[in-house]
Amino acid sequence: MGLRVNFLYNLFLTLANYLVGLVVFPYISRVFGVVNVGIVGFVDSSINYFILFATLGISTIGVREIARVKTDRERLNSAFSSLLSLSSLFLIIVVVLYFVLIFSVPSFETHRALFLIGSAKLIFTVYSIEWFYKGIENFKFISIRNGVVKVVYLLLLFLFVKEKNDIELYFFLTVLSIVVSSIINIVYSRKFVTFSLKNIRIEPFVKQVVYIGTYSILTSMYTTFNIMYLGFVCNSAEVGYYWTALKIYTIVLGFYTAFTGVMLPRMSGMVMGKELDKFKEMIQKSFDLLLSFVLPVIVVGIILTSHLIFVLSGSGFEGAIRPMRLIMPLLLVVGVAQIIAIQVLIPLKQDGQILRASIIGAIVGVVGNVLFVESFGSVGTASVLLFSETSVTLYYVYFAIRKQIISFPFLLIKKHLVSILPYIAVNALLVVLELGSFLTIATAIVMNGILFLVMQYYYIRNQFSYKYISMALQKCEILLKR
Q1: 208-231 pLDDT per residue, tens
Q2: Which pLDDT value is given to residue 7?
Q3: What are the DSSP calls for 103-156, one per residue?
Q4: Are the beta carbons of 321 and 305 closer than 8 angstroms?
Q5: Cα–Cα distance for residue pair 73/61, rounded to 1 Å
Q6: Are 368 and 387 in contact (CB under 8 A)?
Q7: CA–CA gap between residue 341 and residue 480 (Å, rounded)
Q8: pLDDT by residue (tens digit) across 129-187?
């Protein structure tokens, strides 16, 4: 299946996840209010932290290793069986620790019912084996499965979650969607691979998984743990403000993540085939695509933050405005990090550099959390996230340039920075006009969409977007001639 088709399927997969979030979040924000949203954010982030320990680096290493052996059924069976067995060993240890903590730590005991429901999320996320389908590049299946499950989830949510005290029901339905997806994944995988204890060879993967897993855990010190820490030292409202800002940011970031998720198995294949020229060409295209997308979004997001928060969350979430403005530049920072780490360093097996970068980020994150979060709450947490991610990305850039792995596109960055000036003017004008939040956002979507197409076609001329805009214009011209 071609790269463009895979990208479109993965884009659909990512869009389904984040568009559901874009629909669900405004709904639950208005039903639950900022305090209950903060409780859900605290519990969910805490469970995600345990999931990190249960999966370690298998979700990343799995894609790479499956991609390497996908044409050899015997080696594929061995790699799959080994990685799944390794996941199971980690899971057993983590589940025991999980239940000990939710019955002993006061902040966990307070929300024990939610944590008990969430135990199913912990277990079934490990067995979702998304890494297997990405490794064999079967994005079509996981996209269709995800779409169907999400539609059913939405229907159930709107039918049954109606009141403020339905928080446990909401969380149950959310976890249930993960359970169902994982069961479908496991059953369908039998069409492509066979699990067998005879095929298990854990040793070759342990070092890789520990390297990447340690990276994930260290990264979590400023991405996942920070929400837990905020919940420990501040109130649920502060967690709600930060979680709201983070949700909006992750929804937007998901659009670009769709591309990097497709690129990992493809870049690994290029390294194996020693197609280094194509490898470097794809990196440059990735930078071009990233800058084309995120710079306008950052500008729009910062200028229209207050309107976005009101439209997506309703009243009572004004405290999320400042954290969101701090977080929005991370779209560029994290986007660059994803290109260098996922598309370059992991395929080249530079796992040690990823680990070093994560150590830097973790140190900045832990020190920042201790110094700023208790005093500044959600604003402090957002600042720590920005500083930590920036330090990680700067290390990646420094290493990649020093080792001449990539040629950093400074001229391309300059060109794209000039292109955001019209976005600043248009969105500043919308703020001055004071049209009201809903009309402002609706107008912004239309005007920025048109501006994006114009800038891409006449100035940026990004290879990916230019091609599809040209095709659309040609079809429109044909229709008009008729």
Answers
A1: 777 777 777 877 777 777 888 888
A2: 57
A3: TT-HHHHTTHHHHHHHHHHHHHHHTT-HHHHHHTT-HHHHHHHHHHHHHHHHHH
A4: yes
A5: 18
A6: yes
A7: 46
A8: 888 887 777 777 777 887 888 889 999 999 999 888 899 999 999 999 999 989 998 88
Distance CA 119, CA 175 (A): 9
Query: Each residue of 441-454: pLDDT tens digit?
Result: 999 999 998 888 88
87-122 pLDDT, tens digit per residue, is: 899 899 999 999 999 998 888 888 899 999 999 999
What DSSP string runs through 156-221?
HHHHH--STT-HHHHHHHHHHHHHHHHHHHHHHHTTT----GGG---HHHHHHHHHHHHHHHHHHH
Query: Burial level of 196, CB count in 10 A (0-12/13-18/19+)?
Result: exposed
Sequence-separated (6 or more) residues with CB below 8 Å from residue 11: 255, 258, 259
366 CB-near residues (< 8 Å, 6+ apart) = 221, 222
Q: What is the pTM of this model?
A: 0.73
**Sign of the dihedral defined by the CA atoms of residues 351, 352, 353, 355, in that order:** positive
